[in-house]
Amino acid sequence: MTAAAPPPRSIDETLALLGNADYVADRALATVLFLSLRMKRPLFLEGEAGVGKTEIAKVLASALGRRLIRLQCYEGLDVSSAVYEWNYAAQMIEIRMEEAAGAVDRSAMEKNVFSERYLIRRPVLDALGGEAGNAPVFLIDELDRTDEAFEAFLLEVLSDYQVTVPELGTIRAAEPPIVIITSNRTREVHDALKRRCLYHWVDYPDAARELEIVRRRVPRANERLSAEIVSFIQKLRGMDLFKVPGVAETIDWAGALTELDKVALDPETLSDTIGVLLKYQDDIARIGQGEGRRMLSEVKAELAAAE
User: Fold this and answer.
1) Could you tell me the pTM of the whole model?
2) Which residues, including other chains, have CB under 8 Å from residue 162's CB and lie 6 or more apart?
3) Under 8 Å between Cβ of 3 and 134
4) What is the pLDDT of residues 124-171, one digit of tens each?
5) Are 265 and 299 in contact, with CB atoms under 8 Å apart?
6) CB atoms within 10 A of CB 294
């Protein structure tokens, strides 16, 4: 196994670490991430969908040479899906084979079938199994989608970094994983869990930072096109839409227009590709009914005046 890289030793190193992976972060995010690594505290990231919360964990795992373990949360998530379960089919086969061989020692048989060999480690237990000095990055994604009962269980796990498997006993982490928790704030997460974490709200980037993101993530995009895309999306975010586009949609739109060999936006291209940017029909209809053309004219005029 490749040795893990040491955590960054300063905020500037943290910014560089993210930047080297083409993640354009502001200093506030780099600061809280640096502190989370130094203090060995979970980092709780809230923000709208598509602003890059999940990407932070991916970049961190890649930059530090750690395994990324992702627990994708959803309504109804339970312990067997998140922590562990037994391989019942394999256990039954083992029991039948021992019975066929004439084994009658029930205690030995039980000890055999309830062993690590038949334990299926789900993300929580897997995250606690990292080696000292090479603990994984544990991404708990969209925690707000789970119910309060699972949230309470997770609070207990993050308190001691251990879980109890009745048949095996308590399993403790040799070294706590690097924990990143994300939430789209579809519901409020309990204060008790937030108190265990360092907190950061991941907002939409300003125009300059978003333009730098497009340059890094879609390097083939025409410079003029990139500027028009970012300016148009910045205006969209000021509107009362059902779902304003996130950074992920900005990157997708820039990539799509580049594939179409576009060097600038025009009303026809906007109409044809708006489904890459907006994902709700009411929003698409509003932008398509003259509003988009007006905004595009404003964007071109503002960029021309700035030249």
Assistant:
1) 0.89
2) 128, 170, 171, 172, 173
3) yes
4) 999 998 888 889 999 999 999 998 889 988 998 998 999 988 888 899
5) yes
6) 11
d(CA 158, CA 243): 33
CB 152 within 8 A of CB 158: no
Q: State pLDDT tens for residues 48-75.
A: 998 999 999 999 999 999 999 999 999 9
Among 248, 285, 235, residue whose Cα is nearest residue 48:
248
Contacts of 153-161 with CB under 8 Å at 24 or more apart are 153/79, 154/124, 154/193, 155/190, 155/192, 155/193, 155/196, 157/124, 158/42, 158/193, 158/196, 159/196, 161/128
| Residue 172 φ then ψ, to 5° | -110, 150
Q: Degrees (nearest 5) of the Cα angle 289, 265, 291?
A: 20
Is-contact 163 157, C-beta < 8 A?
A: yes
